[in-house]
Amino acid sequence: MGMGLALALLFLIDTATRYEVAVSVFYTVVIVAMAHVLALRGLMVLTGSCIALTWLSFFITRYGDLRAGQINMLISTVAILITGYLACRAELARAAAHEAQARLLRISRIHSLEGLTTSIAHELNQPLAAIVTSGHACQRWMEQDPPNLDKARQALLRILGDADRASAIIGRVRKLSKGEPASPRPFVFNAAVREVLALSQAEIQRLDIAMRADLAAGLPLALADPVQVQQVIANLVLNAMEATALVDIARRTILVESLQLQDKLVFRVSDGGPGLPAGAQEQVFEPFWTTKHEGIGVGLSISRSIVESNGGHIWAEPHLQGGAVFAFSVPVAPQEGLA
Ligand code: ADP
Asked: Are 221 and 186 in contact (CB under 8 A)?
């Protein structure tokens, strides 16, 4: 709306004034102003429109020195082109940064079963296929008349070897699913929260969510594994964002809080999304419990095991104004320091 008005105004002034007055160069201001608002395609269209309007004004204008008009038109065209190009590059860089942030935010989902099952299947496939081949070979040696026991024994040994490999792979997967042990150390709880919020900023803006952070001042240090705690925070914030994205823009609110409850520090996120289904407050932490089409339902169960292995608790609370509230606690570090 504002952009259209600005373009129309510039076009009118440019057309009404003499050739010597290079009003069209001010189209660059419109491009710069819209650089953060429009996506790549929009910026390209805007740049093209500004050039078209510049040329149109030139052909309509009847007053002044034609030569000066030609030079002004060329200078304006080049200036608009350069500005448009720079704005597009900035937009591309912004989109790449946004993509990187979104990817980072999903770190907590690295454990996603999708990737895990593919690699397990891939690794297991080889020894299993080898077992089948050796099994067929063994059968053939045995069916010979007389049976070639020596060859059959060799095939059996190969089968045992491959079965061992398969079982070692399963052993490794088991260890993996238990996760890395927590390595707790004292850290500034609010700083960890702020870092995750900063990462999610671009996505919050893209989804038009109004996010408020109410972090208690003067908190003592937390004692937990800060990376794991950030994974849990990211997961809860991501869930809140996904939930709020389902409702009208007016209800897209997220409140993030930190506070101290006795010897625990608490992180709480309340969203204005559709809320949890009745009676699902406990179930949501069960593995594979999901209501999302593309969900796996392991985020909250992994979050629970992380929080518990760090000496805390995680829970869902009913939200009085609708929406959902998730919170978790971690222990306060014995040696006091200020956040
Ligand atoms: P996933 O996100 O893959 O479904 P999660 O374990 O993170 O797995 O979440 C499990 C389920 O809990 C979700 O499918 C959703 O139904 C519910 N849930 C989690 N967070 C929220 C929230 N903020 N609002 C409403 N429902 C939620």
From this structure: yes
